[in-house]
Amino acid sequence: MGNGKSRVFLVLLFLCLAGINAALVLAAEEGTFNGTWDANGHKEVLALGNQREASLFKLAGHVRLTNKIGKKSDFWAECIGLSDTEMGSEIRSVWRSLDGDEIYLVMKGARMEKGSSITGNIIGGTGQAKGITGNLRFTWSMIFNQDNETGIGGFSNDLSGTYKLP
């Protein structure tokens, strides 16, 4: 009888330890990230009188992180947005890793010009980024217009944020 109880105890102990190890493997990951973001694209401008304009824009470019989100540090970012010289910008973005995982962002900020501060939230993702949440901020170090004001590009060297993976 004692031998049977010992076996049951050992089996239960093993299952408990295996459960603890599984919980550790599946534990949430939290972190911070920093990096750069460069983007180019185009905009369509609508004049709202002499002193105000609204623009629809689409940008794409490279996000390079010095500390990774999960196991990823390089993303191709695509953004669409509406910018108003008086109301600021509303931006939606998808960051796509080299293996296809996506991170979704909602951002807002001041006018699209050098020195403009942008803040936002990470609202989800796919693949290894499924369920990701967090926030980010950056300042446009440079914004430039090309091609008779319809081309636009920019660069930020102070991209930073926090994230949490479930």
| Total domains | 1
CATH class: Mainly Beta
**Overall mean pLDDT:** 86
The CATH superfamily turns out to be: SO1590-like
Record the strand order, biggest sheet. 1-2-3-4-5-6-7-9
How is the main sheet built?
8 strands, antiparallel, barrel
Helix percent reads 10-25%
Instruction: List low-pLDDT spans.
Output: 17-26
Strand content: over 45%
Oligomer: single chain
CATH-derived topology: AOC barrel-like
Give the overall form: elongated
Using DSSP, what is the number of strands? 9
Alpha plus pi helix count = 1
What is the level-2 CATH architecture name?
Answer: Beta Barrel
Q: How far is the first residue's CA from the last residue's CA? A: 45 Å
Query: Helix/strand/pairing class, anyone?
Result: mainly beta
Task: Describe this entry's structure for a reader.
By secondary structure, the chain is mainly β. The chain has a single domain (29-165), classed as SO1590-like (AOC barrel-like), CATH 2.40.350.10. Helices cover 14% and strands 62% of the residues. The chain contains one helix and nine strands; from the N terminus they run αβββββββββ. Strands 1-2-3-4-5-6-7-9 form an eight-stranded antiparallel beta barrel. Strand 8 (142-146) and strand 9 form a beta hairpin. Residues 17-26 have low confidence and may be disordered.
